[in-house]
Each structure stands twice: as structure tokens, then as C-alpha cells.
Amino acid sequence: MPTEHTAHEEGPSALHRTAAATVEFVHVAKQYPGQDEPAIRDLSFTVPAGEVCVLVGPSGCGKTTAMRLVNRMIELTSGDILLDGSSIKGRDTAQLRREIGYAIQQVGLFPHVNVGDNIATVPRLLGWDKGRIRSRVDELLELVGLEPEMRRRYPAQLSGGQRQRVGVARALAADPPLMLMDEPFGAIDPITRARLQDEFLRLQNEIRKTVLFVTHDIDEAIKMGDRIAVLRHGGELAQFATPADLLMRPADEFVEQFVGADRALKRLALTRVRDVDLRVLMPEHERDGHPRIDEGVPLRDALAELLQAGRQEGIVVDAAGKERGVISIDLISRSLEPPA
Amino acid sequence: MIAQTVIPDFGGGEGSCVRENKGFCWNWVKDNWGDTLWPAVRQHVELTAIAVVIGFAIAFGLALLAHRRRRLEAPITVTTGVLYTIPSLALFQILVGFSFLGLNRLTVEIALVSYTLLILFRNTLEGLRGVPAEVREAAEGMGLTRRQVLAKVELPLALPAIVAGLRIATVTVISLATVAAFIDDEGLGSPIFRAIQSNVFKTELLAAGGLAVALALLADAVLVIAQRLVTPWARRQRA
To answer: What is the torsion angle, in degrees rounded to the nearest 10, for the CA atoms of residue A55, residue A60, residue A66 and residue A71?
Structure first.
């Protein structure tokens, strides 16, 4: 999650080159003892390496259970989970977990050690030498947009957002090919949350880990996921699709309802103005009075600006302020039509 | 009890303060510091230190057991609780009744140790249990083994509770150890008993009693400082 001033500009580091793992759920079932219904009945899907797969669904649908089965915080009842083709069964649990990044909503930073030592947890378990750990901590602090001096702070001295960043840095510390994230931005105010989401997407763009991301928030799922697994009660897979697909073609009434009545608007949030075939600019003397819209904003924001200005058309400008073309309410509306 | 000290009535050249048992006689304290009071303080520290160290070793082991196996908690709590509630004079008397024990330090230490167990056990266990669930979950999720979770996370976080227990136990033992002179003539209880038996010699009573109080306060302060040193993270507040 680099901020502007700390953005990664030097050449590819170890981070960029590490492999990501493919995750396969194969007829996974989980039955808790003493409960009538299984938490997960029969769940199968595959997450390709390097993708963010969001598990989303109402509470009690088994999404967190599904995620915790992967690093064996919960043990499978039947079925199997394969990481790059090999089963997690029979693996030493501590060893397995050290190879999988783990970030949770409450973060769970160790209050008695400072930020640097928190981040160094897994590298120490793996027996890295001191110099390597030190430089890795520096690298990670920069990666998540924290000042190097923060390494000596204790968790109690951090803001909620800073704690989440340290949590993500700690999960990434040993460069795991797979990250499990359980509502990692759930307990944060909406503004900081949106910023952390954006930063994580930028970070993910750089490191390309396989990520299993659990949330109950469909908007977060649509924003964060390359793929979304919508679960319903009993861990049943209601739909497994890309965000655009999910919004355009909900598999059934449950998914449609879960996705929400505003799914057209959500789809508009997925596309940026620059990705639309813009109309050519009108003659210069007609351009006055039209709102000027940044080409980087989603269509939803563009629509809002047009409605706000009470105009049918707006001038699209790039970051440098150069006029690129014209966007219209009509164009935005047509972008929702299914491709021919 | 053999009186090494001159009792008021026999007070030779010590002046009217001691002879008349008026109040607090500094001269008497000065004259008897090296022979009576200071050795009693050192014995008292020894009695206390031995009891707290052994008591902590036992209670700590029990707390680790109960932390791992929850069903052991109730029986351990009941047993240590019963020991804790027996009146100290009665317990000393009961212990002396055992033929293999006698009027000696071993008997005293058994009693003192038994009074520390409940406090130290409960505090250690509460400290271990007080570790936030998400901290434990994160530790396990990152691949710390159970033993590593205990050593690197749970015990350090339980330290404030453990030290709190040590403070109560230490102060309790310092106070109880004065009663122990009833069995074994050493420690600050020794001059206190002697003073009581000598027509309540006020100076000796106040001096020895005051030293016991001072010792308790000092021990408490030392433990507080020790805790601050080993838990620097507990003091840091949000920046």
C-alpha cells in the first residue's frame, strides 16, 4: 500500500518475482461436532494463481470457515484443499501456516513488541538471519506506506489504519505465495477503509499474490475481487464469477438479491471513463458550461457529475488537463447493455 | 523464647525512657539495631523470599496445567482456596502436630507457601487467559507452535497480572511471617513476641512492627519497578 511519496520506483525486488499459488477446493465439507447442519456441505472451486478471490455471503454462510480450512485453523471433515496441486492434509500445521500470509479484522498485533518485531514474526520463525530480517522490515514498511521510524512504535501507539497496514506487512513478511484475509478492513472508518482498499489493490497489482479475501460487504467484494465466490447458507456456492459477470448475470434470485437492486450502478463503478469509447469533442465555442470530468473516475462518478450539473454531456480530461473527448448520459447508459 | 535484650525493668544505664516504657525510645533502637533488629530483618527477608519463590514455582506450574486443561482449574482453585482460608495460627499448630515437622523453619515455610498458592495461581491463570483472542489467533495463524505461543505471546502478556499476584503474595507473606515466630523464633515476629511478653515494651513492638511495614512497602515498590522494566510496552500510550 505505498503512498505517493514512497511509491516503489526501483527495479524489481524479490517481491515481484515470487510465485503465487493456485488454490483448489475439492468437495470440501466441514461438519462441526454437535451441530445438525454442516457448516460447509460440498464446496468446490479453483482460484488461479495471482488472483484475488473474494468469499462473500451473509453471516453464517461458512465463508470464514472456508478460509480457515486452508491454513488448517479449522480441520477439514472431508474433501481436500490443494495448494499448487498438493494437499494440505498431512502437512505440519505450523510449517504450512508459515507459508500462508494471514491477516484478520482485529489485526491481532502483538501488543508487547514493537512494529518491527511484529513484522519480523514469521521470518524469525523461519530462522532468517538478522540482516535479512532488518532489510525485509524496511522494505515492507515502505511497501505499506509507513515511515521507517514507525518500526520502534508499539501497537498501542498506532491509529487503526496504521495497525491494519502493519497487519498486512506482517502477513506479507515471509513473501507467502498465498494470503488469507478475513475482513481485513472491516473495523475501520469508511474513509480510511476506502483508502486502504485502494492501497491494497495497488500493492496487489505489484506483488500478484493469490489472495483469499473474506467479506460480508458486496461492494467491497466487487471492488477487491478478480473473482467472487458468493456463498449461501451451508457453504453452498451460489455463484463463482468475475465482478462484472456477477452484476450482469446473477445466477439466481438469491445472488440477485444479495448483489442488490442497485447492481446497475455497481457495474458503473467497475468501469472507468477512459475505458469507454468517447464521442469526439464538440467545436470549441460549444464547450463552455459542460462539466469537466477526469478520465480516471468510474462511470458512476461521471454520471453523478452530469446529473449534478444538469447536463447531458461532459468534457473528459486527462490527468494533465488535456481534453480527450465527450462522455454523455446516453453513452453511460449504453455501457450497461450486454455486449453483442 | 530467650530474651537477648534487656527488658525495661532491668534497664541498667539506658535512661528513663526505656525503664518507664514511655513511648518510642530511639536510644534503645540504636543500641539494639546490630544485635537484634537488623538480624531479624534479614531473617524476615529470607523467610519471605523462600516462601514466595517456592510458592510461585508451584503455582506457576499449576497455572500452566490449568491453562492447558480447563477442567483442572476447579479442583486446583478449591484446594489452594482451602489452604488460603485456614487461619494462620491454626495452620501452624496443625503442622507442628505432624511428627516429622517441628518448631523449625521448614514448618513455617510450608505454611507460608500454602498461603501464596491461591493468589499466584489465580493471577497467573487470569493473565494467561487475558491474552486477547485475536492476538492468539494471529499467533497461531502465522505458524507459532503452542509452546511458542505460550513463551513468546501469552507469558509476556501475562506478566503484569503475574507481578500483581507476586505483589499481593509478597506483602501477605511479610505480614504472616511475623506470626510464624510463634513456631520458629526468627524474623521480625521474634522481637514483637518478646515485646508483648515483656509488659508490652512499646519501643521494641513499634520498631519491629514498623520494620515489617517498611519491608512490605519496599518489597512492593521493588516489584513495581521490576514490572515497569520488563513491560515497557504496557506504559506506552497512544501517540
So the answer is: 110
A83 φ/ψ angles, rounded to the nearest 5 degrees? -110, 115
Q: What's the pLDDT tens digit per position in A111-155?
A: 999 999 999 999 999 999 999 999 999 999 998 889 999 999 999
Separation of CA A266 from chain center: 16
Q: Provide CATH code, domain A271-334.
A: 3.10.580.10
- The per-residue pLDDT for range B166-210, each reduced to its tens digit, is 999 999 999 999 988 888 888 898 888 888 888 778 888 888 899
State the CATH class of domain A4-262. Answer: alpha beta
Q: How high does pLDDT run on average in chain A?
A: 90
Q: What is the pTM (predicted TM-score) of this model?
A: 0.80
- Looking at the partner chain, which of B141, B144, B156 has a beta carbon nearest the beta carbon of A125? B144
Contact A73 B144 (CB under 8 A): no
Gap from A155 CA to chain B (nearest CA, Å): 8
Q: Which amino acid is at B112?
A: L
C-alpha cell at B48: 519471605
Boundaries of CATH 3.40.50.300 in chain A? 4-262
A88 touches chain B (CB under 8 A): no
Are the Cβ atoms of B142 and A109 closer than 8 angstroms? Answer: no
pLDDT at residue B58 in the model: 98
| All three cell numbers of A243 | 465482478
Chain B interface mutation, best of A112, A126, A214, highest count of B Cβ atoms under 10 Å:
A112
Domains in chain B with CATH codes: 31-230 (1.10.3720.10)
Instruction: Please give the Cα distance from A331 to A336 (Å, whole number).
Output: 9
Residue limits of CATH 3.10.580.10 in chain A: 271-334
Q: Provide, as residue numbers in chain B, all residues whose Cβ is less than 8 Å from the Cβ of A170.
A: 142
B175, containing H or E segment: helix B155-179
Minimum-distance CB partner of A102 among B141, B231, B238? B141
Q: Say which of B138, B152, B156 has its CB closest to residue A108.
A: B138
Measure CB to CB from residue A102 to each of B138, B156, B234 and give the nearest one.
Answer: B138
Tell me the residues of chain B between 32 and 71 that have a Cβ less than 8 Å away from chain A: none
Q: Tell me which H or E stretch contains A97.
A: helix A93-98
Query: In what helix (H) or strand (E) does residue A315 lie, and over which residues does it extend?
Result: strand A313-317
Average pLDDT over residues A309-315: 92
For residue range A182-221, list pLDDT tens digits in order.
999 887 888 888 888 999 999 999 889 999 999 999 999 9
Nearest Cα to Cα of residue A299 among A324, A323, A275: A275
Question: Which residues of chain A are within 8 Å of residue B136 when distances are taken between CB atoms?
Answer: 108
CB atoms B237 and A156 under 8 Å? yes
With beta carbons under 8 A apart, name residues in chain B contacting A94.
Answer: 143-145
Residue A313's Cβ-count burial label (10 Å; 0-12, 13-18, 19+) is: buried
pLDDT at residue B3 tops 50: no
Q: What is the count of residue pairs from A and B with beta carbons less than 8 Å apart?
A: 81
